[in-house]
Design a protein that fits this description.
alpha/beta, single chain, Aspartate Aminotransferase, domain 1, two-stranded parallel ribbon, globular, binds pyridoxal-5'-phosphate
Length: 389
Amino acid sequence: MPTFANRVSGFGTTIFTEINELAAQHNAVNLGQGRPDFDGPPEVIDALMRAAQEGARVNQYPPGAGSIHLRNAIALHAGRFYNLDVDPARGVLVTPGATEAVFASLLGLVDPGDEVIVIEPYFDSYVPGITMIGAVPVYVPLHPPNWTFDEQELRAAFSPKTRAIIVNSPQNPTGRVFTWDEQKRIADLCVEHDVVCISDEVYEHLVFDNARHIPMAAMPDMFERTVTVSSLGKTFSVTGWKIGWVYGAPELITGVGRAHQFVAFAANHPGQEAAVHALGLPGTYFEDFQAMYTAKRDLMMQALSLGGLKSAKPEGTYFVMADFSDVFDGDSVQFARYLTTDIGVACIPPGFFYCPEHAHLARTQARFAFCKSDDTLREAGERLAKLLR
Ligand SMILES: Cc1ncc(COP(=O)(O)O)c(C=O)c1O
């Protein structure tokens, strides 16, 4: 009887599925998945409707690399916010979301047997992507409570077999935004070992207070060895549209494109036209977006402290990691189940974002997503307060 391939046999059902099901059964406030419970900007949604109504030009296949309008808009956005000089014709590729952009980058730039460095805790698609292409993940943990990497551990991860490193800042799930100095340490090692950087910057516009997002491609000597991944989902609260992209030096993007043409070929065309409108919104859109999320971040911090959970204030993203050891005896999976079933708030146990050897680092941590309405976050605070009773 046919069965599935060895490369997927270890994947199983994700913890997200289990927690979502538990949350639904127990009517919990679901702060597990990073899925906004509010809508994107009306003018961006109108742009999608207009695009689809325009007819065959937009409702049939776009060029595989993406509509030239969107590739121009992505290059303009990189120039406008980061002063980067991106070639829209040869240095940009549009993908169905950042997830495919990372996977196509791995397929197009890394060979079987090569090593790929992953910073932990990591976004859950990275390691399956690495193993599916026959490459080997090498892990560098961020250490709680401040979620920084140890320079010696980072250096030790680089070897003659290292082909690439995946960097994600602003970082899911820790909420860290790497400083210029931290990124310089990564960049220096990439240059020293001639390594490609796959930089996942989907939270590029979600930074708070004094934190500043610096693309890895803008670090000295990094443009020619970096592919930058981003997407529409987070910045415009339309995660369901799955429009993403990757840009960088044409020599690298050509490799990514060769893989992408046989994985997805193209991303949905009306969404690409709407993305042109979104990326061109005035600066006030991006400022208001940050202000909205700063307020949500603060509501989340209040909710955590009502429950006696300790956490470093996130500098970016819509995630926070919180230490529950003052209010619960047990590990993070037991805590996530208890919180969902008995307290009525769902969170994610972050051990699944580590290799087994490093999972103990997150034994007393839980990840909460605050891309939720203010009322939902207040309700979460009232429920979390039960932890202290
Ligand atoms: C770090 C990171 N990268 C990529 C993605 C996926 O983005 P997309 O939905 O555009 O594939 C996410 C979504 O949660 C993420 O947190």
